[in-house]
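Renewal narrative, Specific Aim 1. Our central claim is that a sequence can be written position by position from structural information alone. The example that follows is taken directly from our test logs and has not been curated for this report. It begins with the structure tokens describing the chain, in the order in which they were read.
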């Protein structure tokens, strides 16, 4: 027995000295996990009356934790001796060490959290933890914390983890955190699952900020951000679920399935009827059964993921796929539009007013016939040339450009550029459009593919708004954001707004033709984009995303983090956290419009330039 104990402790200490991750099951029943050596350890000792799910799961959210039983047996003493050895080893390396033990109380306490400490050197850390816990808000509930100085802290049913002599010799501090079971329904004895989920996330951040304060003030360990102290080793279940979510996303292309395949015939029929009768659109056959995929989606055990940030990402992605599947189930039915609004967001009045103002401020283009145009084949060659340039940065990028009959205009799906065989674009707009489709949509697809998580290329929920905002910015930087293009973006907002307000296809097309002076064919195409499938609201995100991006740049923020994959702006804090935790990599591909030649134009945007300053 003694030999086994010594072997375990020696093996753990050896791995610490070699800076290798540790994940071992303990003979006393429990587990030790240290992703990399840090000067702190979170401790949860399973109570004699049984484990508590919150505190049991809490430890697993951190990079350095130990869970053990402390029954007083020789095996249980091994766990305490292991803690003593880890404390001594890492205190020597980092000049100090911190043990933070958590337990659930059955005492009637005034505060939700009571922080116990026993020596003056621990007061500032206890006060930091108190402040962080005191800041937690979950819904309308504000949690409260207090501190209490006394003897070495421990749960009432166990002895302290270290003696005073051991703590002093190792330059270690002990913090005890007593938690009221506020997440448990007193009538049923079961936890409130959604409250518990939010609590774990907020609680984990509070602990990490406290560890960071200790590391910064009292140790030699180097960490520039509190999230650098988070988990860096991911459990296998994460990669399994990430793979499954990506596979469900890859089963269908929403835009392909809600874009009509008979556009030419529909336009001819609409024109023949003198624009008075709504066209009939035909769509590709549905290649999937949405209900079957939904069943598989909700069988994914995301609740078993201990990392709250990654669990949040996956839940959000599952919800997005669910909404897309709803849209496919409801194609050409009244509920399609409501699901689209859930997926792409509502069209607010301020956006509509900006769109109307743009249409007033930009006159309709004249002398279109004198312009030189680029057709489908020439544009495809331009795209392949740009892909070759980008491929030098990332050899894994493919140069896939395809021309086909049954699509409208151009679109990117799964890293492939699709071009209509009837597509043409003015020569002055072509470079900007290349950067829109290739320099943004394809670049973010492959930057996302370079990340460990597949959802960065399949797209996090709500990514379209930032994606299209970046794509329009790329057009501007390449001098391709013409007045005609601004009018097109504005008209899309108007068409979506009209559709949501309940106006007919004929009325909306007539409004664009007669009031806003679009050509009959342009008005038809814009209206079709809004009404396809039963009411697709995606087209409003182009202008909205661009306006939000101008505000972002005006705050002096950098564009490069936005290109790490198909993300939304609200996810930047999550991206930053995962970068600090070394779970995301630097982007391998920088588009042409981020080169030095365009820096001056980006700097100009930081000087409070509005979209109306871009009118030519």
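The sequence written for that structure reads:
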């Amino acid at each position: 027995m003694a030999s086994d104990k010594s072997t375990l402790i020696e093996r753990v200490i050896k791995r610490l000295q070699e800076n290798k991750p540790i994940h071992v099951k303990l003979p006393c029943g429990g587990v030790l996990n240290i992703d990399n050596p840090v000067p702190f350890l979170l401790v949860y000792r399973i109570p004699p009356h049984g484990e508590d799910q919150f505190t049991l799961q809490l430890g697993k959210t951190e990079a350095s934790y130990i869970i053990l039983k402390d029954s007083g047996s020789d095996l249980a003493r091994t766990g305490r001796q292991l803690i003593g050895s880890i404390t001594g080893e890492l205190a020597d390396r980092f000049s100090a060490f911190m043990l933070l033990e958590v337990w659930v109380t059955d005492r009637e306490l005034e505060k939700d959290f009571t922080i116990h400490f026993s020596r003056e050197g621990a007061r500032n850390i206890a006060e930091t933890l108190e402040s962080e816990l005191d800041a937690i808000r979950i819904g309308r509930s504000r949690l409260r914390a207090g501190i209490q100085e006394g003897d070495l802290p421990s749960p009432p049913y166990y002895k302290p983890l270290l003696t005073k002599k051991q703590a002093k010799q190792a330059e270690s501090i002990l913090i005890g955190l007593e938690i009221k079971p506020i997440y448990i329904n007193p009538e049923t004895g079961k936890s409130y699952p959604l409250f518990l989920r939010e609590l774990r996330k907020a609680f984990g951040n509070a602990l990490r900020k406290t560890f960071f304060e200790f590391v910064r003030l009292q140790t030699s360990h180097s960490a520039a951000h509190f999230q650098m102290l988070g988990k860096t080793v991911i459990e296998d279940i994460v990669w399994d679920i990430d793979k499954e979510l990506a596979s469900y996303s890859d089963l269908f292309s929403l835009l392909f399935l809600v874009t009509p395949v008979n556009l030419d015939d529909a336009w001819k029929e609409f024109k023949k009827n003198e624009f008075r009768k709504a066209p009939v659109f035909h769509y590709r056959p549905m290649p999937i059964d949405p209900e079957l995929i939904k069943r598989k989606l909700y069988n994914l055990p995301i609740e078993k993921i201990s990392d709250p940030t990654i669990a949040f990402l996956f839940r959000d992605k599952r919800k997005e796929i669910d909404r897309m599947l709803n849209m496919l189930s409801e194609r050409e039915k009244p509920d399609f539009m409501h699901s689209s609004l859930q997926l792409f967001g509502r069209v607010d009045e301020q956006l509509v007013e900006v769109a109307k103002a743009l249409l007033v401020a930009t006159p309709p283009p004249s002398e279109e016939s004198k312009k030189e145009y680029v057709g489908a084949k020439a544009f495809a060659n331009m795209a392949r040339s740009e892909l070759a340039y980008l491929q030098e940065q990332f050899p894994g990028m493919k140069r896939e450009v395809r021309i086909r009959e049954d699509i409208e205009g151009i679109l990117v799906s799964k890293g492939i550029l699709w071009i209509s065989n009837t597509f043409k674009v003015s020569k002055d707009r072509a470079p900007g459009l290349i950067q829109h489709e290739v320099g943004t949509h394809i670049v973010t697809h492959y930057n996302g593919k370079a990340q460990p998580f597949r959802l960065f290329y399949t797209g996090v929920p709500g990514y379209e708004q930032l994606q299209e905002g970046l794509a329009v910015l790329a057009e501007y930087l390449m001098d391709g954001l013409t007045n005609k293009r601004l009018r097109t973006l504005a008209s899309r907002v108007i068409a979506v707004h009209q559709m949501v307000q309940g106006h007919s296809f004929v009325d909306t097309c007539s409004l664009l033709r007669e009031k806003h002076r679009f050509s009959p064919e342009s008005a038809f195409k814009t209206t079709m984009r809004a009404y396809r499938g039963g009411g697709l609201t995606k087209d409003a995100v182009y202008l909205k995303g661009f306006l939000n991006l101008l505000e972002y740049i005006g705050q002096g923020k950098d564009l490069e983090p936005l290109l790490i994959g198909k993300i939304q702006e609200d996810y930047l804090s999550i991206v930053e956290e995962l970068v600090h935790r070394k779970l995301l990599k630097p982007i391998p591909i920088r588009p042409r419009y981020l080169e030095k030649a365009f820096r001056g134009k980006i700097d100009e945007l930081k000087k409070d330039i509005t979209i109306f300053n871009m009118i030519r």
